[in-house]
Specification:
Belongs to the short-chain dehydrogenases/reductases (SDR) family. By secondary structure, the chain is mostly helical. The protein is 45% helix and 6% strand. The chain folds into two domains: 34 residues; 27 residues, no CATH class.
Length: 65
Amino acid sequence: GMIGYGMAKGAVHQLCQSLAGANSGLPSGSAAVAILPITLDTPANRKSMPDADFSSWTPLEFIAE
């Protein structure tokens, strides 16, 4: 299933929000930036999620550029 994927996506989002907070412990002037996980259009993903809307997935060619 996709439980692990969803948990990882939520954890990255929460970590970035926590680091961006005023009391995060980061030095003054620091920034917190996250590149959130995306769904890549791969044969394995299509097989594991056959009913999904593939049009919203990121093609591998986009990552390669």
